Amino acid sequence: MTKAASLTLGMIILAGPMGWAQPVATDAAISEAVRRQANTILLRQKLADAQVAQSRQDLPVAVKLYEDAYTLVEGIGDRVSPEAATTVAGLTSVRLELARAAQKRDELNEVRKQLTRVLKVDPKNKQAIAGIVEIVRLYEAEIGRLVAAGNDARVVELAGYARKIDPNRTSLEEFEREARARLDFAATEAK
Predict the structure, then answer these.
(1) Which CA distances in Å does 47 have to 34, 37, 51, 103, 153?
(2) Comparing C-alpha atoms, which of 134, 135, 129, 66 is closest to residue 95?
(3) How many helices (H) and strands (E) in the chain?
(4) With the C-alpha atoms ordered 109, 91, 43, 39, is the resulting torsion angle positive or negative?
(5) Which residue from 68, 81, 67 is spatially nearest to 37, judged by alpha carbons?
(6) Is residue 65 within 8 Å of 53, Cβ to Cβ?
(7) What is the pLDDT of residues 109-147, one digit of tens each?
(8) Are the CB atoms for 88 and 124 separated by under 8 Å?
(9) Residue 167 phi/psi, 5° resolution?
(10) C-alpha–C-alpha distance, residues 191 and 186, integer Å
(11) How far, CA to CA in Å, does 83 sit from each of 47, 135, 156?
């Protein structure tokens, strides 16, 4: 009996630390579940507030709230939930509206910024893809006018922006290279 008791006592002593670790792991899992639940509640509130702001056409507030909601979606880790889908739809909708408003003001750089963000959140968004293609086309047309006007510094600037969007477009590279060459030539002539 002593041998059996010693064996049992030895097993209890050896198993003790494993038994103590289990509550820590359980506590961590519980804490994570509570954190995710709290963030889900906060996400729903952010979405409700963002939708109200969007309906009032307060786009700067709406985009901020949707961005906050998107950060929560990423933190929660459930990208297939209805809240995640609502967040992506709302964020892309507001960003597309901001892009259209910037286009009306002829702020191509702002349009590019908004469309690029849409594509980071929703890489297959057809409106954003079409908008980016149109931006490059508009940059190219503007560059052509600037070349004719002799504004090489602006050509270099716009070609740089456009090449960030479409690095494979050889015409942009040619415009930029030729404008840089003219600027370099003018600089050496001025010395």
Answers:
(1) 20, 15, 6, 27, 44
(2) 66
(3) 7, 0
(4) negative
(5) 81
(6) yes
(7) 899 899 999 999 999 999 999 999 888 888 899 898 998
(8) no
(9) -70, -15
(10) 9
(11) 8, 31, 43
Grouping H, G, I as helix, E, B as strand and the rest as coil, residue 81 is: coil
Burial group, residue 182, by CB count within 10 angstroms (0-12, 13-18, 19+) = middle
- Residue 111 exposed, middle or buried by CB count within 10 Å (0-12, 13-18, 19+): buried
39-72 residue pLDDT tens: 889 999 999 999 999 999 999 999 999 999 999 9
What residue has token string 């289990």?
A: 22
Tokens of 86: 């609502």
Return the residue matching tokens 């597309």. Answer: 96
Question: Two tokens at 1?
Answer: 């009996």
The pTM of this model reads 0.71
Q: Going by C-beta distance under 8 Å and a sequence separation of 6 or more, which residues neighbour residue 104? A: none
Token representation of residue 119 = 């594509």
Nearest CA-CA partner of 122 in 100, 97, 93 = 93
Give CB contacts under 8 A, 24+ apart, made by 165-173. 165/112, 165/116, 165/132, 165/135, 165/136, 165/139, 166/132, 166/136, 169/136, 169/140, 171/140, 172/136, 172/139, 172/140, 172/143
d(CA 161, CA 139): 8
Domain boundaries, the chain: 41-123, 125-191
Which structure tokens are listed for 140?
């190219």
DSSP class per residue in 109-124: HHHHHHHHHHHHH-TT
